[in-house]
Write a structure and sequence with these properties.
Helices cover about 40% and strands about 20% of the residues. It has a nine-stranded mixed β-sheet, covered by helices on one side. The longest helix is centred in the first third of the chain and has 18 residues. The protein is globular and about 60 Å long.
Length: about 400
């Protein structure tokens, strides 16, 4: 199953910004992949190559003229070999020469082609590549948006609900839609943020959390709250919106004591290792502490965080690192450390549902893909419902033995 052609073009993501779509031809089959893009990005992420006008035509041309000729004729089942070839071709430490968006599009499309060649569903193929046990993930629905994802006063970026006590993914999806509908009635007239959650203009962090807590309590412990603080976005001159790290720890502690919170992501700035370590030491046995900007799906940073005991979970974003092989390696390092792993979308999404199969194939037990609203988010959740039906009752749902949730 040799690669015959590699094509690329610019398409628009969920925010109306250009992103890369790649098509890999194997035999008479065409395998397509489109690349997500983040708004709140970590400084250590692989580089998304953008033109001066914000477009991605240079990345598209790199796929066509530089990457394509090098991998045509290679076996599409050689995922690791093809990914390494692209990394070597780029030659930089951050994929800034060819662009992580160019490289990832090819890597995703090749993975789909490899699954076809192996006569497997994509999630089955990823399970084979990673050694993960097939499992349906708990969805973390981002139902209220703040920070960089919304034009409002909310400091925290994502307020999520997670049906950790549901018995199946289909039930958890139903719960997510119910809660989203209830919030729609209570926040009538609110705008919608980048990830589909409501973005009310006159709602404080505290009142948003009280509202969510009141709603999830109606589910008798079946639903919990997750937060993405995105603290790097409001860190300035050594303080977090005017308060120091110790005061932030005390605030988080109060939230954990009084609310149904199970997971907190990016609670400190990406270089504030001291406070990450202190917070994990104090609360890591009570909640999941997730590194996103801190780790950027990068093995070296994950290994440092494991050694320093800075957090206890990885947010896995494939465009942060740029290849499927490297994302799988990051997953393995985190799981070996006993960490939780949550597969994640980005604020600028496409209708590509790759990460749904990725979460199932890794068997990590957690995914976040925004609110159960807008097609770019829904396709991921709908694909998970489809996978669960394909498995015909043989699937495992949840993450209780895999994480702190």
């Amino acid at each position: 199953m040799k690669i015959k052609k590699v094509r690329a073009r610019s398409i628009l993501d969920s925010r109306g910004n250009p992103t890369v779509e790649v098509r890999v031809v194997v035999g008479k089959k065409v395998f397509k992949a489109s690349v997500p893009s983040g708004a709140s990005t970590g400084v250590y992420e692989a580089v998304e190559l953008r033109d001066k006008n914000g477009g991605v035509q240079t990345a598209v041309e790199n796929v066509r003229k530089l990457i394509g000729p090098e991998i045509i004729g290679m076996d599409c089942s050689d995922q690791s070999k093809i990914d390494k070839k692209m990394i070597e071709l780029d030659g930089s430490s951050d994929k800034g020469k060819l662009g992580a968006n160019a490289i990832l599009g090819v890597s995703m499309a090749v993975c789909r082609a490899g699954a076809f060649a192996d006569k497997k569903e994509l999630y089955e193929y990823i399970s084979k590549l990673s050694g993960g046990k097939i499992r349906l993930p708990v969805p973390f629905f981002n139902v209220i948006n703040g920070g960089r994802h919304a034009k409002n006063e909310l400091l925290f970026q994502e307020f999520m609900v997670a049906p950790v006590g549901a018995k199946s993914f289909e039930e958890s999806f139903k719960i997510g839609k119910e809660i989203y509908s209830q919030l729609g009635r209570e926040l009538k007239g609110s705008n919608v943020g980048d990830e589909g959650g409501f973005a009310p203009r006159k709602l404080s962090n505290g009142n948003a959390l009280k509202m969510l807590n009141r709603i999830v309590l109606n589910y008798g412990g079946k639903v919990k709250i997750g937060l993405d603080v995105a603290a790097s976005e409001f860190f300035k001159n050594g303080k977090y919106n005017g308060i120091n790290g110790n005061e932030m720890i005390n605030r988080y502690g109060s939230l954990i004591d009084n609310l149904e919170i199970v997971s907190i992501e990016d609670c400190f700035e990406q270089n504030d290792w001291k406070n990450w370590i202190r917070f994990n030491n104090l609360f890591g046995d009570r909640v999941q502490i997730v590194g996103d900007d801190l780790l950027v799906t990068n093995v070296e940073r994950i290994e440092k965080a494991v050694l320093d005991k800075a957090c206890n979970a990885l947010l896995l974003k494939i465009n942060q690192i740029g290849t499927i092989s490297e994302a799988i390696e990051a997953f393995k390092v985190a799981r070996k450390a006993g960490w939780g792993v949550m597969v994640s979308h980005r604020s600028g999404e496409t209708k590509d549902d790759f990460i749904a199969d990725l979460a199932v194939g890794l068997g990590c037990g957690q995914i976040k893909s925004g609110a159960p609203f807008t097609k770019e988010r829904l396709v991921k959740y709908e694909r998970l419902v489809e996978i669960e039906k394909k498995l015909k009752g043989s699937s495992i749902y949840g993450c209780k033995e895999l994480c702190s949730v």
